[in-house]
Design a protein that fits this description.
Blueprint: E1 10-13, E2 19-22, E3 25-28, E4 34-37, E5 41-44
Antiparallel strand pairs: 1-2, 2-5, 3-4
Pfam families: zf-CDGSH
Protein name: CDGSH-type Zn-finger protein
Keywords: 2Fe-2S, Iron, Iron-sulfur, Metal-binding
Length: about 70
């Protein structure tokens, strides 16, 4: 029985947010360090506002505070 061909890694580019990588991923940072994510979908920051580089923490979203007491 022939082996199933490996699925390609799927990467989704979003208009106003992160790059989504489907499946486990290993990322090599500019300084040579490597980080790994085993999540089903990993969001990689492209706006550089994240506090968790290279992963997106949704800091790119505009936050609107509700008035207190309303």
């Amino acid at each position: 029985m022939p082996a199933e061909p490996a699925r390609p890694t799927r990467v989704t580019l979003t208009d106003d947010g992160p790059v989504l990588v489907h499946g486990p991923v290993e990322i090599e940072l500019a300084d040579g360090r490597r980080v790994r994510s085993d999540r089903p979908v990993t969001a990689l920051c492209t706006c550089r506002r994240t506090r968790r580089p290279p992963f997106c923490d949704t800091s790119h979203r505009t936050r609107v505070r509700e008035e207190q007491g309303s």
